[in-house]
Amino acid sequence: MPNTINSETCNQCSLCIAVCPYKIFEKDESGQIVINSDRIEFCVKCGHCMAICKSKSIDVEGLSYEKNFYELQASDITSDNFINFLANRRSIRNFKDKEVPREISIGFDSILIDEFLLTYDVT
Ligand code: SF4
Ligand code: SF4
Description:
The protein has helices at 15-19, 48-52, 65-68, 79-88, 102-120, and strands at residues 4-5, 25-27, 33-35, 58-59. The protein has 123 residues and is mainly α. The longest helix has 19 residues, at 102-120.
């Protein structure tokens, strides 16, 4: 099944247009959100559109809301606590001024591909 939009539940918020890196969504002359059939082949199944769509109106081939996304639980985390949580995270990279050997970069690529396949269960 190709990617689809449920026009019954879509509220025309346009967020899917804003987040799709490959410009696969657009508005037609009547203002309806539609999929640009000329660009659908560029879909990389990143799932951004499904994640941002509050009404769960988008189906991307190979992804499902049940299998690939989860609901955030309501919590009593305050905005101050959340900002403190982010502020306490640290990520420091020390780069060296020398090339990464090809066999290491190829290995890294295969890890990323494995992660992608596991994440999206397309094996
Ligand atoms: S994000 Fe969902 S509700 Fe908003 S325009 Fe796109 S399909 Fe419609
Ligand atoms: S899955 Fe990613 S590339 Fe495909 S339509 Fe959605 S946002 Fe665009």
